[in-house]
Amino acid sequence: MTNAKQIEKMLRSHAEGDDEQFFSIALQVAAAEARQGRRDTANSLRAAVDAARAKDGVRPSIPIAFASPRGDLEGLLDLKQPSITLADVILPSASLDRLNHLMLQQRKRDQLREHGKLPSNRYLFVGPPGSGKTMTAEAVAGELKLPLFVIRLDTLITRFMGETAAKLRLVFDEILRRRAVYLFDEFDAVGGHRAASNDVAEMRRVLNSFLQFMEEKTATDSAIIAATNHPELLDKALLRRFDEVLEFSLPTPDQIRAVIKYNLRPIKYPRIKWKAVEEAAEGLSQAEIARAASEAVKTAILAQRSSITTQGLTEKLVDRQSMRSAFTTAS
Fold it and tell me: Among 124, 178, 208, 209, which lies 20 to 30 A Cα-Cα from 48?
């Protein structure tokens, strides 16, 4: 039967408006009932939780206000309420299948725990700039109906000895306490390998701290996503800390077409010559292609045209190619 401690925790989480914690405790009770052989009671409790969550819809179940005394934690995390799901992300089918499997583990995490297993919750995204890593992190949060917290590396990393590791501890305390999706973008700034010639003792300590924090088990099963454009810079010890590594690459012709169609809305494109468009977009990232399509739409709107032409679209793609060439030459 439910003990007084669990009832007390449920009442406290209800008073604090922390619905996810309330549901998590209820599911722990269901798991305990199942272990005692009372399957009907366990199934009834799970069904009640699922119904309550469905009634809440997409409303965030996690309170987003920071309850200091956590010092400057608010400056370490940028909150983003996700507006997309995996249905809005254009990725290879194999990558989407892997992501959907990870999301299933998150949704069924209490069932996994009943059998002594933990859901995968530590993901490494690697790939060139603009290939969709940050967008996919937002989609993961949207898929799980959780807030997305982006760790601000400009605030996290300081030149004072011990301060960066202490701030990192604050971030992981929040990960342990509050269920959400946490994104470490440009992760190589933290996870650079310890033997790097330009490394300093302080950053080695920071990496060692990160490795230790990643080993900590959490009842919240918060999703930790690290994204990097430079996987070759990462310390090899990080590999076993992540449950899944997803590679992002430049879009294929089919993906180029899908990205453009998604970003041309609401303007029509009745007679687009896709072969010419795909050739013009070759070598560009998803983000660059999306911006080119968006610029073509804005040009059409300002010219009071109701549709996009092949020339209008390819011109914007060529502009993006020129921008890339200018940037490469300047560097």
Answer: 178
pLDDT tens per residue across span 151-210: 988 777 777 767 788 888 888 888 988 899 999 988 877 766 555 544 456 677 788 888
Q: Tokens for 268?
A: 């029509």
- Six-digit token string for 208: 């060692």
Listed residue (246, 318, 237, 311) closest to 284, CA to CA: 318
At position 85, the amino acid (one-letter code) is T
pLDDT category of residue 69 using cuts at 50, 70 and 90: very low
Which residues are bridge partners to 226 per DSSP? 124, 184
Q: Residue 15: pLDDT above 60?
A: yes
- Which residue segments constitute the domains of the chain, with CATH numbers given? 4-56 (no CATH), 73-247 (3.40.50.300), 253-330 (1.10.8.60)
At 278-293, the pLDDT tens digits run 999 999 999 999 999 9
Strand runs (DSSP E) across the chain, as ranges? 77-80, 122-126, 148-151, 181-184, 223-228, 244-247
- Asked if 222 and 61 touch (Cβ cutoff 8 Å), the reply is no
- Whether this prediction's pTM lies above 0.90 is answered by no
Bridge partners of 192, per DSSP, are 234
Q: Which residues contact 228 (CB under 8 A, 6 or more apart)?
A: 124, 125, 126, 186, 187, 188, 191, 234
Residue type, 289: I
Q: Residues near 108 by Cβ (< 8 Å), separated by ≥ 6?
A: 119
